[in-house]
Write a structure and sequence with these properties.
The complex is a heterodimer of chains A (115) and B (116).
Chain A lengths: L2 E4 L3 E5 L4 E3 L1 E4 L6 E6 L5 E7 L5 E3 L5 E5 L4 E6 L8 E8 L8 E3 L3 E6 L1
Parallel strand pairs in A: 2-12
Antiparallel strand pairs in A: 1-4, 3-9, 5-6, 5-10, 7-8, 8-9, 10-11, 10-12
Chain B lengths: L4 E3 L2 E4 L5 E6 L6 E8 L3 E9 L14 E5 L5 E5 L8 E8 L10 E2 L3 E5 L1
Parallel strand pairs in B: 2-10
Antiparallel strand pairs in B: 1-3, 3-7, 4-5, 4-8, 6-7, 8-9, 8-10
Classes of the chains: A mainly beta (115), B mainly beta (116).
Chain lengths: 115, 116
């Protein structure tokens, strides 16, 4: 079975500084991995996805993530935080091996951006 | 194009009442999922529909929960005899499940259910 661990429940950065949100996964198969963002009282928006092509994945709003199989990690980064990045971020793995392809979510990391 | 829509956006009900939550997936998406987001449990899978196949109900927490999908499109999640622990945001997602992109899911805004 797949699982996802987000190592930080809260991350606080200053505007203009780099963002690092950490994620480790466990999967029996070559996984599909995603990062979703949820702004307050809004739905989940797909930031980026990894599906066994390039290990460095670029997403929307300047975010990117690197798939490292040896470390079973899929950390999310952004060079320079913006106030609008304040939200909750979910690292997600797809249960591709079960056929139903349901998503397993991490517990989320709340990103605060200080002015 | 239009995204996944859900209605109502908010629902307040009394303990013991039945509720119905509706999801309109993206047109052409063959797969539809229901998830629940609650404070204590995070985001958890509930049920999966794919085309005309029998749904995968393995995530439903009790037999008070049921869902149907009519005509391969709109889905309704029904909770009977609601309990306070059912209070959560119920999220619907759809997926095209096309070759080369089998896993990407697109989420609706959710229905916030409050059971008093």
């Amino acid at each position: 079975a797949q699982s996802v661990t987000q190592l930080d429940s809260h991350v606080s950065v200053s505007e203009g500084t780099p963002v690092l949100l950490r994620c480790n996964y466990s999967s029996s198969y070559s996984p599909s991995l995603f990062w979703y963002v949820q702004h307050p009282n809004k739905g989940l928006q797909l930031l980026l996805k990894y599906t066994s092509a390039a290990t460095l994945v670029k997403g929307i709003n300047g975010f990117e993530a690197e798939f490292k199989k040896s470390e079973t990690s899929f950390h999310l980064t952004k060079p320079s935080a913006h106030m609008s990045d304040a939200a909750e971020y979910f690292c997600v793995v797809s249960e591709g091996d079960t056929g139903r392809r349901a998503l397993t979510f991490g517990s989320g990391t709340r990103l605060q951006v200080q002015p | 194009g239009a995204g996944v829509s859900q209605s109502p956006s908010n629902k307040v009900t009394e303990k013991g009442k039945d509720v119905e939550l509706r999801c309109d997936p993206i047109s052409g998406h063959t797969a539809l999922y229901w998830y629940r987001q609650s404070l204590g449990q995070g985001l958890e899978f509930l049920i999966y529909f794919q085309g005309n196949s029998a749904p995968d109900k393995s995530g439903l927490p009790s037999d008070r929960f049921s869902a149907e999908r009519t005509g391969g499109s709109v889905s309704t999640l029904t909770i009977q005899r609601t309990q306070q622990e059912d209070s959560a945001v119920y999220l619907c997602a759809s997926s095209p499940q096309m070759a080369g992109d089998l896993d990407t899911q697109y989420f609706g805004p959710g229905t916030r259910l409050t059971v008093l």
